Amino acid sequence: MNQNETPADRAFRAEVRDWLEHHLSGEFAHARGLGGPGREHEAFAERLAWERHMAAAGWTCVGWPEEYGGRGATVEQQVIFNEEYALADAPARVGHIGENLLGPTIIAFGTDEQRARFLPPIVAVEELWCQGYSEPNAGSDLANVQTRAILEDAGWRINGQKVWTSLAMESDWCFVVCRTEPGSVRHNGLSYLLVPMKQTGVDIRPIVQLTGTSEFNEVFFDNARTDAGNIVGAPGDGWKIAMATLGFERGVATLGQQVGFRRELEGVIELARRTGAIDDPLLRDRLTRAWMGLEIMRLNAMRTMAGIASGAPGPESSISKLVWATWHRDLGELAMDVLGASGLVADGEPYDLNDWQRLFLFSRSDTIYAGSNEIQRNIIAERVLGLPRESKIMEARP
């Protein structure tokens, strides 16, 4: 990709920067820096109001085609938007899952009726989404999904349990991978359903994490319902579509995620200056490597986005997940080393953590959720590099 900005790109950057400068003021001035990993509970109503303010000015879903409510921004312009958003210290987004995961999936695989029904409320931030993938016995092994759905006259009836569902308590809808073909196993017989969360039969139970917050939830479906037409693709296409959604998550969405990452890194660097830790040559080297890693992450995300510009992403998108998860975990460890001994003491009773302690604890989960590092390495080895599956290697041994 051409890294030299065109006159159109420079004009776009100026437009984004000017709008953020003028609008992150007044009633939204206090929203700067709010939210992020391990802090999704923070000022949620204020962040939702900010994002709806963005929507009214046409600054949500900037990469979507104009016919679906977006700006039709190029890959380069999407990068510019996310960079300027980070530089403005704007709040963490609340519509991330709808805008970056479900929306692109519906654009790629949905019907015209589904696009007309579900895309406009995402653009306007009127409906929030969560992701119904993981289960107690189907985390990284997503093909082991046991949540079931039966098609009846009134629509789909869903029973089962999902876990680690981010922001389920704030969401209006959930895209749910479930087994719709009785007796099917593994990748076969799965379907991708769009399920309303505000109904009898959906029970949401927050999970208290190491950080003391509860972004993640258990979700129980007990004869929950959704319309017959709320299936993306055909029955049995669930695995293919679920993998495409993960690919979108590891492409465009990674740039939005890096908004928080860059802000966190800048904060750790400032902390190191303030405490004098930056004078330690080993810590200074690690800070430099962290900056380099973030730039590599950005360039890889751009490469992934360029590859999916004309269609659904492929298994190469697993590289993005492996890169950002490992980088963010390492940043949490680096923050604690910069803090030194003071990082072992909570800020207050009973369990009042500072930002760096919360970063360290929450980022431990990054290499597990949305596909563990081990699973990502297997996908890259087998489906990108063409290496033999581990089971075949084992069978060949005497």
In brief:
This protein is of the alpha+beta class and 398 residues long. The protein has helices at 7-23, 44-56, 75-87, 96-109, 112-123, 238-249, 252-275, 281-308, 318-339, 355-362, 373-384, 390-396; strands at 129-132, 148-152, 155-162, 173-179, 190-196, 202-206, 217-226.
Could you walk me through the main structural features you see in this protein, from its secondary elements to its overall organization?
Residues 236-385 form the Acyl-CoA dehydrogenase/oxidase C-terminal domain. One of its GO terms (molecular function) is oxidoreductase activity, acting on the CH-CH group of donors. Its cofactor is FAD. Residues 6-125 form the Acyl-CoA dehydrogenase/oxidase N-terminal domain. The chain has 398 residues and is an alpha+beta fold. The protein folds into 3 domains: 7-94, Orthogonal Bundle (Butyryl-Coa Dehydrogenase, subunit A, domain 1), CATH 1.10.540.10; 129-236, Butyryl-CoA Dehydrogenase, subunit A, domain 2; 250-396, Up-down Bundle (Butyryl-CoA Dehydrogenase, subunit A, domain 3). Helix content is 46%, strand content 12%. The chain is built from 12 helices and 7 strands. The chain has helices at 7-23, 44-56, 75-87, 96-109, 112-123, 238-249, 252-275, 281-308, 318-339, 355-362, 373-384, 390-396; strands at residues 129-132, 148-152, 155-162, 173-179, 190-196, 202-206, 217-226. The strands form 2 sheets. A 4-stranded antiparallel beta sheet has the order 2-3-7-6, with no helix packed on it. Helix 8 (281-308) packs antiparallel against helix 9 (318-339). The longest helix has 28 residues, at 281-308. The radius of gyration is 21 Å and the shape is globular.
